[in-house]
């Protein structure tokens, strides 16, 4: 039984090393491109036209970012079996795996929040624009 468990752990380590390239690529993109893209949307412009332009630019970024999130989540899903192993030899890999998981979850959450914030801000500005036009028409 111990031998079988050890063999399974070694197989998981080999599998981790194969999947780790994907983790590294996704992690690198998040740190070098993704976080910068999210920071660019922190301050939204004051006009509806500029806001719509920002939303359009964000949609392109969002497509790429969502693809990286999906790839990272698929890679993490392959490693779900790690939860059953608690040996010392596997511990360092579990720590790496948790680090990747935390980074990916944080980025995907920020991406969702940014998407929602931009969408709601556009809706609000469109509403105010309709109200403004309605007031102007009423005054005329």
From TrEMBL:
<dbReference type="InterPro" id="IPR052231">
    <property type="entry name" value="Rho_GEF_signaling-related"/>
</dbReference>
<protein>
    <submittedName>
        <fullName>PKHG4 protein</fullName>
    </submittedName>
</protein>
């Amino acid at each position: 039984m111990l031998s079988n468990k050890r063999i399974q752990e070694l197989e998981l380590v080999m599998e981790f090393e194969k999947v780790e390239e994907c983790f590294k690529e996704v992690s690198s993109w998040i740190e070098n491109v993704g976080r910068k893209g999210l920071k660019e949307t922190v301050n939204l412009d004051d006009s509806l036209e500029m806001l719509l332009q920002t939303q359009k630019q964000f949609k392109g970024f969002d497509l790429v970012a969502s693809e990286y999130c999906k790839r990272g989540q698929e890679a993490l899903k392959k490693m779900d079996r790690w939860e059953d192993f608690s040996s010392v030899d596997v511990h360092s890999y579990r720590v790496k795996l948790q680090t990747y998981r935390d980074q990916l979850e944080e980025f995907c959450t920020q991406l969702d929040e940014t998407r929602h914030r931009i969408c709601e801000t556009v809706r609000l500005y469109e509403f105010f624009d309709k109200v403004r036009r309605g007031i102007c028409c009423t005054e005329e």
